[in-house]
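Reopening this ticket.

The earlier resolution said the output was attached, but the attachment link was broken on my side. Pasting everything inline this time so it's all in one place.
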Amino acid sequence: MLTVNEIQQFIGDDIASQLKHDAREGERYYDGLNDILQYRMFYYNADGEIVEDKTRSNMKIPHLFYRELVDQGTQYMLSDTDMIKSDIPELQDILDEYFNNNQDFIAELTEAVTGCQRSGYSYMYAYRNADNKISFQCADSIGVVEVRANDTDSDADHVIYWYNDRLAKSNKIIKRIQVWDAQNVYFYVQDNEGVIVPDDSEKLNPRPHTLYKRDKKVLYKGFGFIPFFRLDNNKKKLSNLKPIKALIDDYDLMASSLSNNLVDFDTPLHVVKGFEGDNFDELQTNLKTKKIIGVGDEGDVDVKTVNVPYEARVAKLELDEKNIYRFGMGLNTAGLKDTSATTNIAIKAAYSLLDLRCSQLEIRLKQFLNKLVKVVLDDVNQTEVKDYQLKDVYYSFTHNIMSNAVENAQIELTNAQKQQTAITTLLNIAQRLDNETLMQLICEQLDISYEDIKDKLPDINEADNSINSAMQTLKDVNIDE
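Inline output:
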């Protein structure tokens, strides 16, 4: 069991780690808290000192490219939630109950896949719900600390899970800490950055992983393993922000600078010659209010305007946007401006980078789902005396993409015309074929199983008009189906 000092040290070391720094950075950009919000401008004053310039416009405009790229990946990965399958009907019913048709699980898995891309990795943990069935919930990866006896160990001996519960009356943060081992959970609490102490609000501390009632008795049971499962975005557990952070920062800077230029230079400069007023403050007041100034006989006013380099900035913004989607491996919908004139081939090509990125994540997601499914199968085998194996389960991911409806309708029309031409050709040569062969060929064109309907056809050897009768029957069967 970990001591209080060890818990304090492990949490502190984890917070200061580069891995958690990168994860927090990914969360910041996903929430739109880009580095541009910290942008400041300085200048050298007359004494050669650096001073912050607070008179000029300083627009800070963050752009949420990262949120869009992450959400694209999640939607594309989980566009069809019926992904966990089995050829055993009874087992498929169980998988549907626990996973495919379980909206709570779908919501938690969606959060885990989003967090995996956003922060580099995410966690889900297992617990028993009110019906004494295994359920899963996503855990904030920032607050999960894996503790290993040796750095070379693959499995953790303990998992520390902490989160900020609330603010006390003294405006101090109350931190809840859970320490998990293979059998129990130990609860602690920390007031702000004070000493970690056992949590007295928990009636049972330590507590086994699961509590459930049977015959009016409360039973305790541990899983026999630490029920935390990690989904990695890649081998190094890096978020999708790394390749595109500099590009997003550059886009934010270009867009904000363009706005600053438009604000700072929207008023022309007045060059006044032969001014006879009392002082320049009076001149400024007259320009702003009366729009009139007085000059001497030799005086003159020359109005100067500043041309903002708009075209260059816009070109840079477009280049940055293109590279953000390119290196972020996402779908740039700006390239599909007119979907009615865009072919399905062009749409599929636009999806190619997103498909490649999600295909890499799909491999790790299957490994992750294997761990969750194994927990459920082991529990079902024990409670219902079954022998389901992980090899009885497989995964199928179907990705939904947009398409050109006009082109799809044209393809369907072409296929229908092709089918009608084939049937007409068969009817034209009907006299050279026996009736059974003719019916089989027509069924192939209509995508109907001849074996399933042949008993519904009339006796074609005795019917006077066998072909017409059979064709009418085929038509009726096709309508029914």
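Reporter confirms the inline version is readable. The chain has a mean pLDDT of 82. The first strand starts at residue 42 and ends at 44.
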